[in-house]
Design brief:
This protein is of the alpha+beta class. It has helices at about 1-15, 20-35, 40-45, 55-80, 105-120, 135, 170-180, 220-235, 285-290, 310-315, 325, 330-335, and strands at about 125, 130, 165, 185-190, 205-215, 240-245, 250-260, 275-285, 300-310. The longest helix has 27 residues, at about 55-80. The structure holds adenosine-5'-[phenylalaninyl-phosphate] (FA5).
Length: about 325
């Protein structure tokens, strides 16, 4: 047995000497010291040798184990400070790898800016779900089943009858139900419409809905808040025009258009050559919607608006195609 042990030692040490990388080191460890390794197997036979031989053989066996152990350490050290194999990956003293710093998406920047403007005017910021029920997206907003107004917002329907919200207006009713009156809140959110895309329409875009419910709210309140908003965003005079607009959840309803800042009103593909861009529909909340929110329309009135946040981003930064914003092209996004 002593002879066998010595042979193993010589063989092992010469093999450890030739190791070239950490993988070979691991293999040799297993070959000699693993559960079925050559040395381990031999030591299992210790129990069969004569009692008086055991101390001597045991001592030699331990010495061999130790010298193989220190050979392993030596080889491992050698790989540790070289650039060989996977050991380098675990070397915590190597300098870090530089990663590029990201930045906020222009939609997010605009959302945060608007939130600040509205918070300063006493509005809460509340976000709603992307997946909405037919009730909150349409019915509670005074758009009954089979009403043609449902067709003005082409909808992505889900198999279970729910839908991807087509606008941020469902939050009007959700918020009234939860917070009651008086209430001032804005609801930023992503909207989805099953429609063909062009320079100013995408199938995914952002809106920021606003709602103010109190006693004696009138159109004068809407106009004051809208003016304050545009002044804060553009920090200069921007021409706007107001015209009547039909939305079943407001009465009366208006469209607030902004003079196209891409072409300064000359006409381009963004404003469909009209010089104006539809940015912000608004109006006084319809009594049926106030009722759906659990409030009494004889006691409370309110205004609501649905700002096209993505279009505002386009106007602010001079982006002439809305599809660039969701396109995921880093060359575009890195400019912000
Ligand atoms: C609505 O979505 C109403 N919920 C707005 C509203 C709220 C009216 C409260 C009255 C009171 P509309 O479908 O017009 O309305 O969309 C509102 C704004 O969202 C538009 O003016 C436009 O700026 C933007 N918008 C609509 N569709 C798209 C689209 N496909 N891509 C980009 N922006 C869009």
């Amino acid at each position: 047995m002593l002879d066998d042990l010595k042979k193993i030692k010589l063989k092992a040490l010469s093999e450890f000497d030739k190791i070239k990388n950490s993988e070979e080191l691991e293999n040799l460890k297993v070959k000699y010291l693993g559960r079925n390794g050559e040395l381990t197997k031999l030591l299992k036979n210790l129990k069969d040798i004569a009692e008086e031989e055991k101390p001597k053989v045991g001592k030699v066996a331990n010495e061999i184990k130790e010298s193989i152990g220190s050979a392993i350490e030596k080889v491992a050290d050698k790989f540790d400070d070289s650039s060989v194999g996977d050991i380098q990956v675990n070397n915590l003293t190597l300098p870090g790898i530089k990663t590029e710093k990201g930045s906020l998406h222009p939609n997010t920047m605009m959302q945060y800016e608007l939130e600040q403007i509205f918070t300063a005017m006493g509005f809460k910021v509340i976000e709603g779900p992307d997946l909405e029920s037919e009730y909150f997206n349409f019915t509670a907003l005074n758009i009954p089943d089979n009403h043609p107004a449902r067709d003005t917002q082409d909808t992505f329907w889900l198999d279970d009858g729910n839908l991807l919200k087509t606008h941020t207006s469902p939050m009007q009713v959700r918020a009234m139900k939860k917070y009651g009156a008086p209430l001032r809140a804005v609801f930023p959110g992503r909207c989805f419409r099953f429609e063909a895309t062009d320079a100013s329409h995408d199938s995914t875009f952002y809106q920021l809905e606003g709602l103010m419910i109190d006693k004696d709210i009138s159109i004068a309140n809407v106009i004051a808040v809208m003016k304050e908003l545009l002044r804060a965003v553009f920090k200069r005079d921007v021409k706007v025009r107001q015209r009547p607009g039909y939305f079943p959840f407001v009465e009366p309803g208006f469209e607030l258009d902004i003079n196209c800042l891409i072409c300064e009103g000359e006409g381009c593909s963004v404003c469909k050559q009209s010089g104006w861009l539809e940015l912000l529909p608004c109006g006084l909340v319809h009594p049926n919607v106030i009722r759906a929110g659990g409030l009494d329309p004889k006691e409370y009135s309110g205004f609501a608006f649905g700002l096209g946040l993505t279009r505002l981003v386009m106007m602010k930064y001079g982006i002439d195609d809305i599809r660039l914003l969701q396109g995921g092209d880093l060359r575009f996004l890195k400019q912000f």
